[in-house]
Amino acid sequence: MAAAAGLALLALLAAAGAERGRKVSMEYNPGWNSSSVNLLHVRAVGPEDTLHYVWSSIGAPSVLLVATRSPSSALRVNWTQLLSPSPAGAVWIDPPDSVVYSTAVVFTKLFEFSEAKPLGELFYPTYDLSEFSWESLNHSLNHTALTAELRGVPASDPGGAFANGSLAFRVTAYEGSGRAVRLPRLLHTADSSQLQFVLAGVLPRGNGSRFVLQLAALEPPGAQRRLRARSSIDDEYTPSVFQELSLVAEPPNGTGSALSFLQWKAAAYGSPSPRREDGVRCRAGRLRAANGSLPAAAVPRAFFGDGPAALSLLNVSFGGEEGHVYQERRYLSWSVLLGFGEPPRDSFSPLVISIAAVALGAPLAVLLLGGCLLLLLARRRRYSEYEPIN
């Protein structure tokens, strides 16, 4: 009963925050004076609730999402314990009973492969993101634009693939509803943040190399993840892209509204200033349950502990017949929205509705006008058959 009430409250909080907007603040390494590690706390405060996003590169890059019923809830960190081999319990929200929902997403690995005909796919050694060395996030933190960037390279790079390149996760927080300026122009609300995955200048290890980003979604017992796909004929905001995917967390048995989501368009881009022709196909693999321990990400382990949890893995691949795009440009970007409640849903814009109305209305008007003319001619012909009376 308490769990059901908490889930219902979450839906109310998300709706209220989306409509009224939120006051968003960013804090780097709260309570810790060193920049040797990265922890970014994004706090989005509504009239009666607070949404917490905790981004970190301690271990694999990850984000912890927590919704509370209190506008004054706060993040607490025991740094000594967090940086120890056993971080369970080092991160919590105060007061603890204000938490109504929590989840986490961990970006675990980057795979690279190429088509080696006639042998099939040739996979190269995997990039384990928990073994990357990350720059200080504090250098990129912009409190006005509400943006920050985690940028890293492998701690060991014997082949020199990252000699002139890097992998980055760019974070953007939002205080209200709107749409991103650059493609794919994702629609957002005050209950969401955007993440952009960027691979730039990295030397591919094969001809026509393609990349696959693996992510792990962590849920408390009872909730479950499901992959949704939705098609639309409206590509006004993302030209030539007609599919949108969402990885949603749902209550047990799929009843009720979504609790949280990741949402993206089925496209990545091969340019820092993307245009339609820079599009790269983006595919989602099969969502599968993962057995075993939690990923090597300190903050989710510190918050959830080492107890039972539902862990789902998803691979997102970039390339296909456009596999040579990265080979030529050495740039790849993919944008995804993360947030609470149901993912935003695009509706037909007034422009598209007007065009459709004209397209459908013009033939109908021609038919009506033609019918009226035929009726008029028929009536005139009927009367003309009678001889005039003198």
Low-confidence stretches: 355-359
**Average pLDDT level:** 87
Span between termini: 95 Å
Shape: globular
List strands and helices in order, with pairings.
Blueprint: H1 2-20, E1 23-28, E2 39-45, E3 50-56, E4 62-68, E5 74-77, H2 79-82, E6 91-94, E7 99-116, E8 120-123, E9 127-128, E10 132-134, E11 147-154, E12 166-173, E13 178-179, E14 187-188, E15 192-200, E16 210-219, E17 224-231, E18 243-250, E19 260-265, E20 267-269, E21 279-284, E22 288-289, H3 298-304, E23 310-318, H4 324-329, E24 331-340, H5 350-384
Antiparallel strand pairs: 1-2, 2-3, 3-4, 4-7, 5-6, 7-8, 7-9, 7-16, 10-11, 11-12, 12-15, 13-14, 15-24, 16-23, 17-18, 18-19, 19-24, 20-21, 21-23, 22-23
Describe the structure.
18% of the residues lie in helices and 39% in strands. With 390 residues, it is α+β, with helices and mostly antiparallel strands. The strands form 4 sheets. Strands 1, 2, 3, 4, 7, 8, 9, 16, 20, 21, 22 and 23 form a 12-stranded antiparallel beta sheet that branches. Strands 10-11-12-15-24-19-18-17 form an 8-stranded antiparallel beta sheet. It is globular, with a radius of gyration of 26 Å. It starts with a helix and ends in a 6-residue tail after the last helix. The model is unreliable at 355-359 (pLDDT under 50).
